[in-house]
Every structure is written in C-alpha cells, then in structure tokens.
Amino acid sequence: MKALLVIDIQNDFLLGGSLAVPEGDKVISVVNELMPHYDLVIATQDFHPAEHSSFASNYLDRKAGEVINLNGQEQVLWSDHCVAGTEGAALASALNTDGIDRIFQKGKDPQVDSYSGFYDNGHIRSTGLGDFLRMEGVEEVHLVGVATDYCVKFTALDAIAEGFETRLIIDACRGVNLQPGDVDCAIDEMKNVGVQIWGSDQVLGETVTLFRPTGLEELKKIEKSGFTAWPPRLPDQPIFYPVLNQVYAEQIAREWNITASGSGFVTRFRVKRSFLRSYPRQIVGGREHEELWIPAEDLTELNDNIVGKIEVIKRFETFPMKV
Questions:
Q1: In terms of DSSP bridges, do strands 73-76 and 2-7 run parallel, antiparallel, or are they unpaired?
Q2: Which residues are part of the catalytic machinery?
C-alpha cells in the first residue's frame, strides 16, 4: 500500500504568510492532482503554542534566522508561525482537504521543535505517524509539500529510518533556502540514505486526457485540421473551456449544444501535463464539474501540446440522422 504524505501546506508557509516559502502555493495544484492516485493521504500540520521556543519573538536579543542551542539541539529561530488555533496554522483553502484521510499535528511541545512528521527534533516523542502507517499496511510513502530543506527532508529521513520505501515528488515541493544551496544539500542528503527523487509525471503520466463538448460548425473546422487542432476563438469567446471528465462534457453537449444548434458532440484529446500546469482546475457547481480556463491567446500553444488526434466519442442530436 502506498501513502502520500502532504507536509505542512499551511497558510503561514504560503504567499502572504508569516513564514512564506518561496513559490510554496504553486505545489497545491500538483498535490491535489496526486491525491486520487494513493491508497491513503496523510497531512502533517505545524501546530505551535504561542510561547514556542523556536520563535525569535520569545527572546529579548534574538532575530529570526539566528541559530541557538535549544536543550542540546541546534535550533533555527523563526518568525512566529502556525500558532494553534490561528488562521496561519490552517491548511490552505485551495488544498483538497476532502482528499485527506488523517492529519498529524506536530510542534505542540513549547520546548522542542518538530520538523519531522514522525518525531520531534530530539526523537523523544513520536507523533504516532509511523505506527499508524504500519497499522494501515503502508509500505511505501511519497512526500510533497514544504519546506524541502526542513520539514520535508526530516520527514523523509525518518521515513527511511522507519523502514518505509520513500520517494520525494520534487516538483510538488518547495524549499526555504535560508542559505544558498540548502535545498540542493537537502536533496543530496535524502538521496544518500535511499530516498528516491521522482517527478509527479512518474505518478500521473506525461499527458492529461481532456474532454470538450462542441457543435457541428466547430467540428467541421477540427476536421479540416486533420483532427489535430482547435480553431481560433471568436471575438466573443475569450476563453477555451475543456473539461476533466466525460460525464460533464456529455451534460453540456445535451443541455447546451443541442439547444443551440440541434446537435452536440463530445470530443476527447490528450495534452502534455507540463503545459497544463499553468491552468488550475476550476470547479463550477459540483466537484464533478471540473474545467480548465485557457485564454484564447494561448490556444495555439495548447494545440502545439496536443498528443495524438482529437477524437469524437459521442454524438447527440434532436432528430437522429438517417444512416
């Protein structure tokens, strides 16, 4: 059994937060996309008391970024962050929390920090994560989240020590780089103990299958392209809307295309995942109503990233054509 460990994707670590990780918010869409591919999804959550000893504000003569000795452990002092019960400690609103099976909180002891999702920094107290994963029959864990050079790294190191096959999904992580090169050093440290470095494409595949309802006139233009490209948008069509599942495409074809022109078609096509990363999934109505909003000026680039042919997989008509 495989588990996805989602490390500390919390408001204070994202854009506008008190301890924002550069580009931390960019991992969320990748993490959401990864979740359905795992048997179990676990999130960790920094959950500090206000008087936590890692906060520079709790010392008269210290600044964030300084390193002190805290009960025999080297401790970086941070800005106040992820204080229990505050909005900064909450998981990011854009994260699909419905896809998370369990949350493990850490850093609750004011006298010791807890970068790892498994233990505090002194390895004195366990969070219970290791026992839970074993109880569930998990043998392999994949890590995503923030920050690569702190909480992600230490969780990965402990996962190896706990006997789990461990992979880091590199494009679904971001680091602090308190010192230049910290992220690269962290990745090397993880690799040296047996952590495998993967890209999300190795889980998801290199392409995304999209669907689009269309009418007869647009279909004729697609045919002229050899079923390889979508035609330019009209002036009153600033956005191209492919959808993420066939059921939703069929619903639009029946309720919209047939009403407008008497016929509707559902098409299916594959696009390189790397191109689509710039366009977050949009939910319109129910969760099954997922679509992408691609500006008309990006349509040529979309066409360049189509893999294979645009297929017609369903046809709806008010009055079926005679054969």
A1: unpaired
A2: 8, 106, 151
Cβ neighbours of 89 (radius 10 Å): 19
The region, left, alpha or beta by phi > 0 then psi within -120 to 50, assigned to residue 289 is beta
Helix, strand, or coil (residue 312): strand
Instruction: Note the pLDDT tens digit of each residue in 281-296.
Output: 888 877 678 899 999 9
Cis peptide before 147 (omega within 30 of 0): yes
Q: Which residue in 143, 205, 196 sits closest to 174, CA to CA?
A: 143
Q: Give me the count of residues in the chain.
A: 323
Strand arrangement of the beta sheet that strand 140-146 belongs to: 102-106, 40-46, 2-7, 140-146, 165-174, 196-198
Q: What share of the chain is helix, strand, coil (3-state, %, to 5)?
A: 30, 30, 40
Integer CA distances (angstroms), 124 to 96, 114, 118, 121, in order: 32, 10, 11, 8
In whole angstroms, give the CA distance from residue 38 to residue 36.
Answer: 6
The maximal CA–CA distance of the chain, rounded, in angstroms, is 86
Cβ atoms within 10 Å of 165's Cβ, excluding its own: 15
46 or 67, which is more confident?
A: 46
Pairing of strands 196-198, 165-174: parallel
Give residue-wise pLDDT tens across range 253-267.
Answer: 988 887 767 788 999
pLDDT digits (tens, 9 = 90+) for 132-169: 999 999 999 999 999 999 999 999 999 999 999 999 99
- Ordered by where they begin, the domains of the chain are 2-204 (3.40.50.850), 207-317 (3.20.170)
pTM tops 0.85, yes or no: no
Instruction: Please tell me whether residue 108 adopts helix, strand or coil conformation.
Output: coil
